[in-house]
Amino acid sequence: MKRILVLFSFIALACMITAAGAATSTIIVTNPVDAAALVYVSGYDLTPGVFYPDETGTLTVHVTNAANAGVSVAEPDLIDSHIDVINQDAYTTTTLIGPGATADFTFVIRARGPDGTYLPLFTIAAKPWGTPRTHSQIKVKVDSTDLRASVSNKPNTFSLEKTDTVNVSIVNPRFGDISDVLIIASSPGSDISPSEEYVESIPAGTSVKVPFAITPHQQSDVTFKVSFRNGDNVHTTSVVLPLNLGADKSAAIPVINNVKLASNAGSYTMTGEIGNAGITDAQGMILSLGAPAKPVGAYQNYLIGSLASNDLTRFTLTFTSNDLSAVPVKVQWKDPQGNTQSSTITLDLHTLAEGSLSGGTATGGTAVPNSFYPFIAGGIIVIAAIVLYTKRKWIISKLKKQ
C-alpha cells in the first residue's frame, strides 16, 4: 500500500512540474485584445545571407504567440523601396497561432538596391481588428564583391610530357558564405588530373586551394571554370593559365665522363662514369646505345637505378660498330612525378680506338696510325743524308788524322 502511495506521489509531482513548465511558456490573459498584444517576431532566416545586386532569395519570418490563448493573424507584409516581394499575394487568409506556438511566413524577395545594408519593415495584423500591428525590422545586406580565383604554386615554365602541379586558389571576400563550388579544368593540349573538383562551401572571408596536375603535350592554355551558389543563385567565374613551354630547370642532367674503350675480337667494351648534374633525382635510369653502334654481349644495356642529384656511378656497355666517330648513348629515367625522361649523349670514340688497335684498354692519349710509319722512316733517312753532306769535309779531315 505504501509503495502505491509513493508511486502516486511521484506521478502527481511530475504532473505539477509539467504544468509549471507549460505555464512559463505562455502568459495568462483574460481577453482577445491582451492575447493579440503578446504576438511578436521571434526571429528570421535569410537565404542567401548576403545578396548580390538584383539577386533573388527567401526571407522566412518567425511569428510567436506568447499568450495562453490562440491568436489569429493576417496581412503579413514587407515594406522597403529597395526590396521587391515577388510572392506578394501568398498570404491572403487568416492564420491561427496556438498558445505558445510559432508560425512561419516566407517571402520570395529581390534586392534591387546597390551595395549597402537595408532594413525592410515586416508588419502583421492580429485579431480582433484594431489591435496594434506587430512590426519588426529585417536586416538585408547587398554586396557586389565577387569571388576571386587565381592559380598559384605554378612553375615559371612547363615542359612537354612533364607533370607539374598547380593550385587553384579561391578566395571568398564577401560577407556571406558561398556553397557548391565546382572547378572544371580544360585544355586542348594537356592532360589534367583531376578534371574537376568540388568544394562544399567557402565561409565568408576565407579561401581554399585545390591542386591540379598538368601534363602538356603541346602549347596551349588551361582554363579553370569556377561555378558556385549564393543561396539558390548560380554564379560563374574563370581563370586562364598560359602554359609557357621551356626547358625544365629542375630536371636531372646526365653527364658522361672518364670514358675508356677496349677492343676484343671485333667488339668493344666501353666503360665510364655517369653523373647527375641536375637538381632532382633520376629514378630507374637505364643506359643503351644507338645506331651505328650495335649492342652485343653481356652489357647491351646498363641499369643504373636511382641516381641522386650531384651523384655519379660507373657503367659498362658492349657493342660493335664500323663508325666510332659518333656513338650515341641513350639515357632514360623517370622524374619524381613518374614521367619518363630521356637524353642522348653522343661520344667520339675514334681517338680512343686508335690507342687500342692491338687490344687492351685505351687511355685516351693520341696514337699515331700504322700507315704513317713509312713516311716517318723516309723523313729520318733524308735528314741523315743532309747532315752527312753538309759535314762531309769535317768528317774527311777527322778520318785523315786517324
Description:
The chain has helices at 2-25, 32-37, 350-354, 373-390, 392-401, and strands spanning 39-47, 55-65, 71-79, 83-85, 95-97, 102-111, 116-118, 121-126, 134-137, 140-142, 148-152, 164-172, 178-186, 190-193, 196-202, 206-216, 221-230, 233-242, 254-264, 267-276, 282-289, 294-295, 301-307, 312-320, 327-334, 340-347, 360-361. The protein is of the alpha+beta class and 402 residues long. It has 3 domains: 22-142, Immunoglobulins (Immunoglobulin-like, Sandwich), CATH 2.60.40; 148-242, Sandwich (Immunoglobulin-like), CATH 2.60.40.10; 254-361, Immunoglobulin-like (Sandwich). The chain has a 5-stranded antiparallel sheet, with no helix packed on it. Strands 1-2-6-4 form a 4-stranded antiparallel sheet. Strands 5-3-8-9 form a 4-stranded antiparallel sheet. A hairpin with a 2-residue loop joins strand 17 and strand 18 (233-242). The longest helix is centred in the N-terminal third of the chain and has 24 residues, at 2-25. The N and C termini lie far apart (168 Å). Mean pLDDT is 83; it is low at 1-24 and 356-378.
From the N-terminal CA to the C-terminal CA, the straight-line distance is 168 Å
Mean pLDDT: 83
- CATH homologous superfamily classification of the largest domain: Immunoglobulins
Strand content: over 45%
CATH topology of the largest domain: Immunoglobulin-like
